[in-house]
Fold:
Amino acid sequence: MYDVAIIGAGPAGLAAALYASRARLKTIIIEKDGPGGQIKTTDEVENYPGSIRDCSGPDLVERMKEQVDHFGAEYTLDTIESVSFEGKEKILKGMNKEYKAKTVIIATGAHSRPIDCPGEKEFVGRGVSYCATCDANFFEDLEVFVIGGGDSAVEEAMYISKFARQVTIVHRRDELRAAKSIVEKAKNNPKIEYRWNSVVQEIKGEGIVNSIVFKDTKTGELEEYFAGEDDGTFGVFVFIGLIPNNDIFNGLVDMENGYILTNERMETSIPGVYAAGDNRVKDLRQIVTACADGAIAATQCEKYIAEQE
Ligand code: FAD
Ligand code: NAP
Structure:
Protein backbone atom coordinates (compact mmCIF):
# COMPACT_ATOMS: atom_id res chain seq x y z
CA MET A 1 0.00 0.00 0.00
CA TYR A 2 1.55 3.29 -1.12
CA ASP A 3 0.81 6.66 0.41
CA VAL A 4 0.91 8.28 -3.03
CA ALA A 5 0.65 6.68 -6.47
CA ILE A 6 1.48 9.05 -9.32
CA ILE A 7 0.37 8.18 -12.85
CA GLY A 8 2.80 9.73 -15.35
CA ALA A 9 6.42 10.88 -15.11
CA GLY A 10 6.27 14.12 -17.04
CA PRO A 11 7.21 17.37 -15.27
CA ALA A 12 4.00 17.29 -13.18
CA GLY A 13 4.51 13.70 -12.03
CA LEU A 14 8.21 14.16 -11.33
CA ALA A 15 7.63 17.34 -9.31
CA ALA A 16 4.86 15.59 -7.38
CA ALA A 17 7.20 12.65 -6.68
CA LEU A 18 9.92 15.01 -5.47
CA TYR A 19 7.61 16.72 -3.00
CA ALA A 20 5.93 13.49 -1.85
CA SER A 21 9.17 11.57 -1.32
CA ARG A 22 10.84 14.51 0.45
CA ALA A 23 7.85 14.50 2.80
CA ARG A 24 8.71 10.83 3.51
CA LEU A 25 5.51 9.54 1.93
CA LYS A 26 5.77 6.08 0.40
CA THR A 27 5.61 7.11 -3.23
CA ILE A 28 5.47 5.33 -6.58
CA ILE A 29 5.51 6.85 -10.06
CA ILE A 30 4.01 4.67 -12.77
CA GLU A 31 5.03 5.68 -16.29
CA LYS A 32 4.29 3.99 -19.58
CA ASP A 33 7.00 5.42 -21.84
CA GLY A 34 10.06 6.41 -19.80
CA PRO A 35 10.42 9.65 -17.83
CA GLY A 36 9.98 13.13 -19.26
CA GLY A 37 6.64 13.32 -21.03
CA GLN A 38 6.39 15.96 -23.72
CA ILE A 39 9.58 17.80 -22.83
CA LYS A 40 11.76 14.88 -23.76
CA THR A 41 10.75 15.64 -27.37
CA THR A 42 12.01 19.23 -27.46
CA ASP A 43 15.50 20.45 -28.15
CA GLU A 44 15.54 23.70 -26.22
CA VAL A 45 13.87 24.82 -23.02
CA GLU A 46 14.55 28.44 -22.25
CA ASN A 47 11.58 29.49 -20.14
CA TYR A 48 11.78 27.12 -17.19
CA PRO A 49 13.52 29.05 -14.41
CA GLY A 50 17.15 27.93 -14.16
CA SER A 51 17.16 26.18 -17.55
CA ILE A 52 19.82 28.31 -19.17
CA ARG A 53 22.88 27.69 -21.35
CA ASP A 54 21.51 25.38 -24.05
CA CYS A 55 19.30 23.33 -21.75
CA SER A 56 17.53 20.66 -23.81
CA GLY A 57 14.31 18.88 -22.79
CA PRO A 58 16.12 15.54 -22.25
CA ASP A 59 18.78 17.31 -20.07
CA LEU A 60 16.11 18.80 -17.87
CA VAL A 61 14.28 15.47 -17.58
CA GLU A 62 17.46 13.70 -16.58
CA ARG A 63 18.06 16.17 -13.76
CA MET A 64 14.45 16.00 -12.57
CA LYS A 65 14.56 12.19 -12.50
CA GLU A 66 17.90 12.15 -10.67
CA GLN A 67 16.49 14.45 -8.00
CA VAL A 68 13.42 12.21 -7.56
CA ASP A 69 15.61 9.09 -7.30
CA HIS A 70 17.75 10.84 -4.70
CA PHE A 71 14.74 11.22 -2.38
CA GLY A 72 13.71 7.59 -2.79
CA ALA A 73 10.50 7.60 -4.83
CA GLU A 74 9.89 4.24 -6.48
CA TYR A 75 9.64 4.35 -10.28
CA THR A 76 8.15 1.68 -12.49
CA LEU A 77 7.40 1.23 -16.18
CA ASP A 78 3.78 0.24 -16.63
CA THR A 79 0.63 1.51 -18.32
CA ILE A 80 -2.34 2.14 -16.10
CA GLU A 81 -5.35 0.75 -17.95
CA SER A 82 -8.13 1.23 -15.41
CA VAL A 83 -8.68 2.60 -11.94
CA SER A 84 -11.05 2.19 -9.02
CA PHE A 85 -11.40 5.25 -6.82
CA GLU A 86 -14.24 3.99 -4.60
CA GLY A 87 -13.46 3.85 -0.91
CA LYS A 88 -10.31 4.76 0.94
CA GLU A 89 -8.07 2.34 -0.92
CA LYS A 90 -7.50 3.51 -4.50
CA ILE A 91 -6.67 0.73 -6.96
CA LEU A 92 -4.73 1.24 -10.20
CA LYS A 93 -4.69 -1.63 -12.67
CA GLY A 94 -1.58 -1.64 -14.80
CA MET A 95 -0.68 -3.81 -17.76
CA ASN A 96 1.88 -5.56 -15.53
CA LYS A 97 0.61 -5.13 -11.99
CA GLU A 98 -2.02 -3.76 -9.65
CA TYR A 99 -1.14 -0.85 -7.33
CA LYS A 100 -2.91 0.24 -4.13
CA ALA A 101 -2.56 3.67 -2.62
CA LYS A 102 -4.12 6.02 -0.10
CA THR A 103 -3.95 8.90 -2.58
CA VAL A 104 -3.51 9.21 -6.35
CA ILE A 105 -2.08 12.01 -8.47
CA ILE A 106 -3.19 11.85 -12.10
CA ALA A 107 -0.34 13.42 -14.08
CA THR A 108 -1.00 11.79 -17.43
CA GLY A 109 -0.44 14.91 -19.55
CA ALA A 110 -1.42 15.05 -23.18
CA HIS A 111 -0.43 13.79 -26.63
CA SER A 112 -0.27 15.35 -30.10
CA ARG A 113 -3.51 16.01 -31.93
CA PRO A 114 -3.50 14.34 -35.35
CA ILE A 115 -4.70 16.16 -38.48
CA ASP A 116 -7.04 13.23 -39.21
CA CYS A 117 -6.66 13.51 -42.97
CA PRO A 118 -6.24 10.65 -45.46
CA GLY A 119 -2.64 9.45 -45.64
CA GLU A 120 -1.56 10.84 -42.25
CA LYS A 121 -1.59 7.54 -40.32
CA GLU A 122 -0.26 5.57 -43.27
CA PHE A 123 2.87 7.73 -43.56
CA VAL A 124 3.81 8.09 -39.87
CA GLY A 125 7.55 7.36 -39.77
CA ARG A 126 7.72 7.61 -43.56
CA GLY A 127 7.48 11.38 -43.89
CA VAL A 128 4.93 12.26 -41.20
CA SER A 129 6.20 13.01 -37.69
CA TYR A 130 5.06 14.53 -34.39
CA CYS A 131 8.54 14.91 -32.84
CA ALA A 132 11.22 17.20 -34.22
CA THR A 133 14.06 16.07 -31.97
CA CYS A 134 13.31 12.45 -32.87
CA ASP A 135 13.03 12.82 -36.65
CA ALA A 136 14.35 16.18 -37.95
CA ASN A 137 17.74 14.73 -38.89
CA PHE A 138 16.06 12.38 -41.40
CA PHE A 139 15.26 15.48 -43.46
CA GLU A 140 18.79 16.81 -43.89
CA ASP A 141 18.79 19.17 -46.87
CA LEU A 142 15.16 18.35 -47.75
CA GLU A 143 11.99 20.42 -47.58
CA VAL A 144 9.73 20.22 -44.53
CA PHE A 145 6.18 21.41 -43.88
CA VAL A 146 5.35 22.18 -40.27
CA ILE A 147 1.62 22.20 -39.61
CA GLY A 148 0.25 24.53 -36.88
CA GLY A 149 0.65 28.07 -35.64
CA GLY A 150 1.23 27.69 -31.88
CA ASP A 151 4.40 27.68 -29.74
CA SER A 152 5.23 24.08 -30.65
CA ALA A 153 4.94 24.57 -34.42
CA VAL A 154 7.10 27.69 -34.49
CA GLU A 155 9.74 26.51 -32.01
CA GLU A 156 10.05 23.11 -33.61
CA ALA A 157 10.23 24.70 -37.08
CA MET A 158 13.33 26.56 -35.87
CA TYR A 159 14.88 23.33 -34.68
CA ILE A 160 14.05 21.52 -37.94
CA SER A 161 15.64 24.38 -39.92
CA LYS A 162 19.03 23.25 -38.54
CA PHE A 163 18.66 20.19 -40.79
CA ALA A 164 16.19 20.93 -43.55
CA ARG A 165 16.87 23.04 -46.64
CA GLN A 166 13.63 24.93 -46.17
CA VAL A 167 10.81 24.84 -43.64
CA THR A 168 7.30 26.07 -44.44
CA ILE A 169 4.94 26.72 -41.55
CA VAL A 170 1.40 25.92 -42.68
CA HIS A 171 -1.22 27.72 -40.62
CA ARG A 172 -4.99 27.78 -40.95
CA ARG A 173 -5.14 31.54 -40.29
CA ASP A 174 -2.92 34.47 -41.30
CA GLU A 175 -1.64 35.19 -37.80
CA LEU A 176 0.40 32.90 -35.57
CA ARG A 177 -0.85 31.93 -32.12
CA ALA A 178 2.72 31.43 -30.78
CA ALA A 179 4.21 33.81 -28.18
CA LYS A 180 5.67 37.02 -29.61
CA SER A 181 9.21 36.19 -28.45
CA ILE A 182 9.10 32.90 -30.37
CA VAL A 183 7.54 34.48 -33.48
CA GLU A 184 10.25 37.18 -33.56
CA LYS A 185 13.04 34.58 -33.51
CA ALA A 186 11.43 32.62 -36.34
CA LYS A 187 11.01 35.77 -38.44
CA ASN A 188 14.78 36.23 -38.42
CA ASN A 189 15.34 32.69 -39.65
CA PRO A 190 16.01 32.80 -43.42
CA LYS A 191 15.06 29.13 -43.90
CA ILE A 192 11.50 29.57 -42.58
CA GLU A 193 8.62 30.50 -44.87
CA TYR A 194 4.87 30.65 -44.28
CA ARG A 195 1.84 29.31 -46.02
CA TRP A 196 -1.13 31.18 -44.55
CA ASN A 197 -4.82 30.22 -44.54
CA SER A 198 -4.03 26.62 -45.38
CA VAL A 199 -4.88 23.22 -43.95
CA VAL A 200 -3.77 19.78 -45.03
CA GLN A 201 -6.42 17.89 -46.95
CA GLU A 202 -4.43 14.75 -47.84
CA ILE A 203 -0.92 13.29 -47.65
CA LYS A 204 0.09 10.99 -50.50
CA GLY A 205 3.04 8.87 -51.55
CA GLU A 206 4.37 5.51 -52.61
CA GLY A 207 6.14 3.99 -49.62
CA ILE A 208 7.20 7.46 -48.50
CA VAL A 209 5.49 10.85 -48.69
CA ASN A 210 5.83 12.54 -52.06
CA SER A 211 2.88 14.92 -52.27
CA ILE A 212 0.55 16.90 -50.05
CA VAL A 213 -2.79 18.49 -50.82
CA PHE A 214 -3.48 21.87 -49.20
CA LYS A 215 -6.88 23.49 -48.89
CA ASP A 216 -7.21 27.25 -48.78
CA THR A 217 -9.36 28.01 -45.72
CA LYS A 218 -10.72 31.20 -47.34
CA THR A 219 -11.50 30.07 -50.89
CA GLY A 220 -11.76 26.29 -50.42
CA GLU A 221 -9.33 25.87 -53.34
CA LEU A 222 -7.17 22.71 -53.36
CA GLU A 223 -3.52 22.64 -54.41
CA GLU A 224 -1.29 19.57 -54.61
CA TYR A 225 2.39 20.09 -53.92
CA PHE A 226 4.87 17.47 -55.19
CA ALA A 227 8.36 16.70 -53.88
CA GLY A 228 11.15 17.92 -56.13
CA GLU A 229 12.46 15.24 -58.51
CA ASP A 230 15.91 15.13 -56.91
CA ASP A 231 14.47 14.99 -53.38
CA GLY A 232 11.73 12.41 -53.99
CA THR A 233 10.19 13.21 -50.60
CA PHE A 234 9.70 15.85 -47.91
CA GLY A 235 8.73 15.96 -44.25
CA VAL A 236 5.38 16.79 -42.65
CA PHE A 237 5.68 17.66 -38.95
CA VAL A 238 2.36 18.05 -37.15
CA PHE A 239 1.99 20.42 -34.16
CA ILE A 240 -1.70 21.34 -34.01
CA GLY A 241 -2.27 21.09 -30.30
CA LEU A 242 -2.90 18.43 -27.72
CA ILE A 243 -5.40 15.82 -26.58
CA PRO A 244 -5.42 15.08 -22.82
CA ASN A 245 -4.58 11.49 -21.80
CA ASN A 246 -7.69 11.15 -19.66
CA ASP A 247 -9.77 8.44 -21.36
CA ILE A 248 -9.48 5.97 -18.48
CA PHE A 249 -10.88 8.56 -16.03
CA ASN A 250 -14.00 9.31 -18.09
CA GLY A 251 -17.08 9.16 -15.90
CA LEU A 252 -14.97 8.78 -12.74
CA VAL A 253 -13.82 12.36 -12.11
CA ASP A 254 -15.48 15.57 -13.30
CA MET A 255 -14.11 16.87 -16.61
CA GLU A 256 -14.60 19.70 -19.09
CA ASN A 257 -13.84 19.03 -22.77
CA GLY A 258 -11.80 15.99 -21.77
CA TYR A 259 -9.66 17.93 -19.24
CA ILE A 260 -9.96 17.13 -15.50
CA LEU A 261 -11.57 19.80 -13.33
CA THR A 262 -9.66 20.67 -10.15
CA ASN A 263 -9.66 23.48 -7.64
CA GLU A 264 -6.47 25.38 -6.80
CA ARG A 265 -5.45 22.58 -4.41
CA MET A 266 -5.50 20.18 -7.43
CA GLU A 267 -8.38 18.25 -5.82
CA THR A 268 -10.61 16.43 -8.30
CA SER A 269 -14.25 15.57 -7.59
CA ILE A 270 -13.05 12.47 -5.66
CA PRO A 271 -11.46 12.87 -2.21
CA GLY A 272 -7.84 11.69 -2.20
CA VAL A 273 -7.54 11.92 -6.00
CA TYR A 274 -5.64 14.87 -7.47
CA ALA A 275 -4.78 15.95 -11.01
CA ALA A 276 -1.68 17.89 -12.04
CA GLY A 277 -0.26 19.26 -15.28
CA ASP A 278 -1.47 19.49 -18.86
CA ASN A 279 -4.38 17.07 -18.34
CA ARG A 280 -6.38 19.49 -16.20
CA VAL A 281 -8.44 22.56 -17.00
CA LYS A 282 -6.03 25.54 -16.85
CA ASP A 283 -4.91 28.56 -18.84
CA LEU A 284 -1.19 28.02 -19.18
CA ARG A 285 0.26 24.63 -20.13
CA GLN A 286 3.99 24.84 -19.45
CA ILE A 287 6.70 22.99 -17.55
CA VAL A 288 6.65 25.57 -14.79
CA THR A 289 2.88 25.26 -14.24
CA ALA A 290 2.99 21.45 -14.50
CA CYS A 291 5.69 21.34 -11.80
CA ALA A 292 3.74 23.78 -9.62
CA ASP A 293 0.62 21.61 -9.94
CA GLY A 294 2.62 18.51 -9.01
CA ALA A 295 4.09 20.18 -5.93
CA ILE A 296 0.66 21.39 -4.77
CA ALA A 297 -0.96 17.98 -5.35
CA ALA A 298 1.74 16.16 -3.37
CA THR A 299 1.44 18.57 -0.46
CA GLN A 300 -2.32 18.02 -0.44
CA CYS A 301 -1.80 14.24 -0.38
CA GLU A 302 0.25 14.68 2.77
CA LYS A 303 -2.54 16.73 4.42
CA TYR A 304 -5.24 14.30 3.27
CA ILE A 305 -3.41 11.27 4.69
CA ALA A 306 -2.79 13.07 8.01
CA GLU A 307 -6.50 13.93 8.26
CA GLN A 308 -7.55 10.33 7.58
CA GLU A 309 -5.31 8.90 10.28
P1 FAD B 1 3.36 15.26 -20.00
O1 FAD B 1 4.64 15.93 -20.24
O2 FAD B 1 2.44 15.01 -21.15
O3 FAD B 1 3.67 13.87 -19.25
C1 FAD B 1 2.66 12.93 -18.98
C2 FAD B 1 3.28 11.56 -18.77
O4 FAD B 1 2.27 10.63 -18.37
C3 FAD B 1 3.90 10.99 -20.05
O5 FAD B 1 5.23 10.59 -19.80
C4 FAD B 1 3.01 9.80 -20.39
O6 FAD B 1 3.72 8.73 -21.01
C5 FAD B 1 2.49 9.39 -19.02
N1 FAD B 1 1.21 8.66 -19.07
C6 FAD B 1 0.08 9.04 -19.73
N2 FAD B 1 -0.90 8.14 -19.53
C7 FAD B 1 -0.38 7.15 -18.76
C8 FAD B 1 -0.89 5.92 -18.25
N3 FAD B 1 -2.15 5.53 -18.49
N4 FAD B 1 -0.08 5.13 -17.50
C9 FAD B 1 1.20 5.51 -17.25
N5 FAD B 1 1.75 6.67 -17.72
C10 FAD B 1 0.97 7.48 -18.47
N6 FAD B 1 6.78 23.97 -22.02
C11 FAD B 1 7.63 24.89 -21.54
O7 FAD B 1 7.45 25.39 -20.44
N7 FAD B 1 8.76 25.24 -22.25
C12 FAD B 1 9.06 24.69 -23.46
O8 FAD B 1 10.08 25.06 -24.07
C13 FAD B 1 8.17 23.74 -23.99
N8 FAD B 1 8.41 23.17 -25.19
C14 FAD B 1 7.55 22.22 -25.68
C15 FAD B 1 7.81 21.64 -26.92
C16 FAD B 1 6.96 20.69 -27.44
C17 FAD B 1 7.26 20.06 -28.78
C18 FAD B 1 5.81 20.29 -26.71
C19 FAD B 1 4.88 19.24 -27.27
C20 FAD B 1 5.52 20.89 -25.48
C21 FAD B 1 6.38 21.86 -24.94
N9 FAD B 1 6.13 22.47 -23.73
C22 FAD B 1 7.01 23.40 -23.23
C23 FAD B 1 4.95 22.13 -22.91
C24 FAD B 1 5.37 21.13 -21.79
O9 FAD B 1 6.12 20.08 -22.36
C25 FAD B 1 4.14 20.58 -21.08
O10 FAD B 1 3.41 21.67 -20.53
C26 FAD B 1 4.56 19.63 -19.95
O11 FAD B 1 5.34 18.56 -20.44
C27 FAD B 1 3.33 19.06 -19.24
O12 FAD B 1 3.76 18.15 -18.27
P2 FAD B 1 2.82 16.99 -17.70
O13 FAD B 1 3.65 16.25 -16.72
O14 FAD B 1 1.53 17.55 -17.29
O15 FAD B 1 2.47 16.06 -18.96
P1 NAP C 1 -1.71 25.12 -29.32
O1 NAP C 1 -1.17 26.26 -28.55
O2 NAP C 1 -3.06 24.58 -28.97
O3 NAP C 1 -1.72 25.55 -30.86
C1 NAP C 1 -2.24 24.69 -31.83
C2 NAP C 1 -2.09 25.35 -33.20
O4 NAP C 1 -2.57 24.46 -34.19
C3 NAP C 1 -2.90 26.64 -33.32
O5 NAP C 1 -2.20 27.58 -34.08
C4 NAP C 1 -4.18 26.17 -34.02
O6 NAP C 1 -4.73 27.16 -34.86
C5 NAP C 1 -3.66 25.05 -34.89
N1 NAP C 1 -4.67 24.01 -35.11
C6 NAP C 1 -5.46 23.40 -34.18
N2 NAP C 1 -6.22 22.45 -34.75
C7 NAP C 1 -5.91 22.47 -36.06
C8 NAP C 1 -6.35 21.70 -37.18
N3 NAP C 1 -7.27 20.74 -37.04
N4 NAP C 1 -5.80 21.96 -38.40
C9 NAP C 1 -4.86 22.93 -38.53
N5 NAP C 1 -4.40 23.68 -37.51
C10 NAP C 1 -4.91 23.44 -36.30
O7 NAP C 1 -0.74 23.84 -29.28
P2 NAP C 1 0.86 23.70 -29.17
O8 NAP C 1 1.55 24.72 -29.98
O9 NAP C 1 1.14 22.27 -29.38
O10 NAP C 1 1.14 24.04 -27.64
C11 NAP C 1 0.53 23.22 -26.62
C12 NAP C 1 0.88 23.78 -25.25
O11 NAP C 1 2.28 23.63 -24.99
C13 NAP C 1 0.57 25.26 -25.17
O12 NAP C 1 0.06 25.52 -23.90
C14 NAP C 1 1.91 25.91 -25.35
O13 NAP C 1 2.01 27.18 -24.73
C15 NAP C 1 2.85 24.90 -24.71
N6 NAP C 1 4.19 25.03 -25.33
C16 NAP C 1 5.03 25.96 -24.80
C17 NAP C 1 6.27 26.17 -25.39
C18 NAP C 1 7.17 27.21 -24.78
O14 NAP C 1 6.83 27.77 -23.77
N7 NAP C 1 8.33 27.51 -25.32
C19 NAP C 1 6.65 25.46 -26.51
C20 NAP C 1 5.76 24.55 -27.03
C21 NAP C 1 4.52 24.34 -26.44
P3 NAP C 1 -5.40 28.50 -34.26
O15 NAP C 1 -4.26 29.37 -33.87
O16 NAP C 1 -6.19 29.01 -35.40
O17 NAP C 1 -6.25 28.05 -33.12
User: Anything to note?
Assistant: The chain has a mean pLDDT of 96.
